[in-house]
Fold this sequence. Notes:
It is a single chain. With 285 residues, the chain is an all-alpha fold. The protein has one domain: CHAD domain (Alpha solenoid), CATH 1.40.20.10. Helix content is 80%, strand content 0%. Helix 2 packs across helix 4, helix 4 runs antiparallel to helix 5 and helix 7 packs antiparallel against helix 11. The radius of gyration is 21 Å and the shape is flat. The relative contact order is 0.14.
Amino acid sequence: MAMRKTSAAQVKEILLGHVRNAATALKDTPTSDESIHEARKQLKRARASLRLLRDAIGRKAYQHENAALRNAARPLSRVRDAQVMREALEDLYDSASVTSSSSDPIRRSLVREYDSARGSVAGPTLGKVRNALQSAERRIQALPAAGNGALLAAATKRLYRKGSAALAQATVDRTEMKLHEARKQTKYLELALDALRSTGGHRLSKLIRRAKQIEAHLGVDHDLAVLREHIAPALRSARGKAKALMPCLEKKRQMRQTKALRKGRKLYAKKPRSFGKEMTKELAT
């Protein structure tokens, strides 16, 4: 059954909920890694909801609030990225059957990066993030959000078109930049559709599931690509089993890329025009 009476006002409330949840996650001091990760996830969902409202609130307001939320998330992202690098390294060691001690220079460099990232969000920086979220909430509450399901359908069509184009480019040119762009655009689509599903739609679940799978595969691929840049200098003089790290890393990347691109062909099988018509039927009737 199609979702009825979907409105921009409903999506605006979802957006405000994510901003408030992010602020709540950062309320305690000291702030744990889990709280930082949760706040970062909530801000990603907030920006996804904001993309759905771009036409409803106007381009200028959209750009301002999107930049504000992106800037608030930036110091949090550094902590999460540093933690992910440590986890990716341990997984790579396991996959390549390489034993490493705590004195391993690669491991130590990633620990230093993590400690630096954690230190960067302590005290004044975290206070600025909290203040930025409070200010964003007040501004968003004051924004007009007139619009119905047809406006939201147009927004999802725009996201779908960008995601389809990005994945098509990554298919023919598997550079890190192209793959990362495909990942980002698919994540934008996934979170936007998820915001709409939470207002009452149920037929979007299959699309969301596929988008999550693509984003997960390309996310691991991106993490491995970043890790490669960290370990490449140290591996130039590596001996023994350590030499197996780079071939293992590249093999894992190829596997993730292949799976993501295959699932991407299913997610983006329809032309954007056809997808837009389906979304209009889903959201505007």
